[in-house]
Amino acid sequence: MKEKIIIVEDDPAMRLGMNHFLRAYGYEATSCDDGAKALSILDSEIFDIAIVDLKLPGVDGLTLLKHIKTISPQTGVIIITAFAEVKTAVQAIKDGAFDYIAKPFTNEELLLVIERFLKFRTLEKEVKYLSELVKKKDEFEGIVSTSSVMKEIFDKIDAVAKTDVPVLIQGESGTGKELIANAIQKQSLRKEKPYIKINCAAIPETLFESELFGYEKGAFTGATETKKGKFELANGGTIFFDEIGDMPLSLQAKLLRVIEDGIVYRLGGKEPIKINVRCIYATSKNLKELIKAEKFREDLFYRINVMPIAIPPLKERKEDIPVLIEKFLKIFSEKYGKQNITISPSAYEALLSYDYPGNVRELKHAIERALLLSKDGVIDIKHLPEEFSPLSSFQKKCFISNFSLKECIENFEKNLIIKALQECGWKKTEAAKKLGISRKALWEKIKFYGIEPNP
Ligand SMILES: Nc1ncnc2c1ncn2[C@@H]1O[C@H](COP(=O)(O)OP(=O)(O)OP(=O)(O)O)[C@@H](O)[C@H]1O
Ligand SMILES: [Mg+2]
């Protein structure tokens, strides 16, 4: 279908001329001679392009333009001007017109502007589509990241998700192991099938077997009903063994047998039950060390370590921190109905330089807490947990490095002053009072240490 164009022009010769010419080019042209009539047409019909004369009886061109941009922002508006009106035409462009064309003009000149707009619109759509695609790619099943290590992990997931290859996810607590396991399951061919999660650290050893394999009625005291185990419940789907390093040794042998044979027996049962499950494993422990300490079976390790995915701690991929901050701010702003939250430069710096022993989870909690504590829409250093302050990070450094006592004390003093200044919004009188020293003494120390406010 050809594009719809409305011509609003009071000069009959021009109006009819344009109408005729555009129709001859296959456009669906409509025309009218005054602004008020145009408004009522535009209220009920959507046009791709509006060609609007600046000087119109009733409602003038600029008013009409504003109206069109409100009710139909995607319509391209081309303004027709007399030479003397160029200033107003420039205003029209500022108000959202695509371009203007000065009288007298030829039909070909008009056609060029129309074609330029249509090309622009196609490109605009393409850019929008591509940027949405990029955004989607940036966010992999809710996992945000810009670091190249995480990109490699996403590629690995793409490569194995649709197979039944066992995956072993290793990473410190809070690095996103469960998120990765979920992403694999969601992209697998088993995504519509059961997805059972077992936290091996949370099930008491005595209950483990009955949980995994189920039991027959009367198998032991208290087994009043036959119960299916997790393997049976997950049949056809996926099992996620979280904290596999915490699985009791005796059970590891049994697990190995099940994954090798694909058969389980309920406790007290004689019937073999055929099992078809895809297993994903995660651990925050070093399995090789557990093997050395004889707490993990080596043969099981080789069975499950077919596709290892190692998630680095957050401090080794600090480039992810800004996008994570942005993501969590968005999540919690929506959750708590807070808008336009910003982070002060000192708080941002503290968030970027902190080491996050609790990884992404710690960052997430810090943002949530800070957002709740902030009152005027600004997250400041005082809203972050104590560990984030420059003081405590330096204290930690003092313990692990070979600084001299003098260096430690000086740095301690410097950081204490920075912290006091930050907390007082860099007001020296207030900071001096807080530190219990005179304003002059503070000023001298600021000079001595070369302390400057954050940009
Ligand atoms: N890259 C990421 N993008 C967005 N959110 C993330 C990311 N990584 C982790 N998270 C969030 O951080 C929290 C911790 O992640 P998850 O539970 O997957 O970690 P884990 O490695 O399984 O931790 P644990 O070992 O303590 O069980 C979750 O709330 C998760 O949504
Ligand atoms: Mg977990």
TrEMBL record:
Checking Pfam families in the record gives: AAA_lid_14, HTH_8, Response_reg, Sigma54_activat
GO terms in the biological process aspect are: phosphorelay signal transduction system; positive regulation of DNA-templated transcription
Q: What are the residue boundaries of the Response regulatory domain, all occurrences included? A: 4-118
Q: Which organism is it from?
A: Thermodesulfovibrio yellowstonii (strain ATCC 51303 / DSM 11347 / YP87)
For the modification 4-aspartylphosphate, the affected residues are D53
This chain belongs to the protein called Acetoacetate metabolism regulatory protein AtoC
Gene Ontology CC terms: protein-DNA complex
Q: Which GO terms describe its molecular function?
A: ATP binding; cis-regulatory region sequence-specific DNA binding; DNA-binding transcription activator activity
InterPro entries linked to this entry: AAA+_ATPase, AAA_lid_NorR, CheY-like_superfamily, Homeodomain-like_sf, HTH_Fis, P-loop_NTPase, Sig_transdc_resp-reg_receiver, Sigma_54_int
What SMART domains does this protein's entry cite? AAA, REC
